[in-house]
Write a structure and sequence with these properties.
- The protein has 2 domains: 144 residues, HAD superfamily/HAD-like (Rossmann fold, 3-Layer(aba) Sandwich), CATH 3.40.50.1000; 69 residues.
- Helix content is 45%, strand content 12%.
- The protein has 10 helices and 6 strands.
- The chain starts with a strand and ends with a helix.
- The mean pLDDT is 92.
Length: 219
Amino acid sequence: MIKHLIFDFDGVIVDSEILAAKAFSNVLLNLNIKTDHSAEFIAEKFAGNKMIKVAEEICKIHNIKDKNSYLNKVMKLVSDSYNNKLESVEGVKDFLKLNTLNLYISSNSGKERILRGLKQVGLDSYFNKDKIYTFDMVKNPKPSPEIYIKVIKDNNLNNEEVLVLEDSVPGIKSAVQAGLKVVGVIAGSHWKNRLPEPLIKAGAFTIIESYKKINKLIN
């Protein structure tokens, strides 16, 4: 029986992955760099990775010398979008209203950013601050399994009673290596017009495109 849900944050609770992807793409355009790195391409290729890693990869591909300047410009756009355009993933609020399970968050993002995002989209009452786990609480972020192992050990959870909700390949690999069952969630807008096969290959045992299907899956 499933008693505990562990959510990724970006792209699973808040619809932020596409905002970050647009920022990475728009800064390239602002630098007059000709590229096929559209927001959709960046979301597909880099979702689930830390922003500094994405910036390093994009700077390497486009021969951008000052990666710190590029990242800072991206972070400014992301911050503006996060403050003004952030929304919850479709269906998650209704799902949480009906939920009776124990909830956790495991994310490659920072805790203050998560807390601010939850409050901004009206979901802060559903998550205990002490049950939010972030990249800076472990030595290695996702796709390392460390963060999920920490959630399990800190809360003395039984792996068989845990279900993980992830939307990216690094996140799914992280949970699978920790010995957990993982659902691939493609309800976020960054999954529009994309096929979910990479999530299955990474180890997700099933895919859901709507939160309406999770209760049935859990039962």
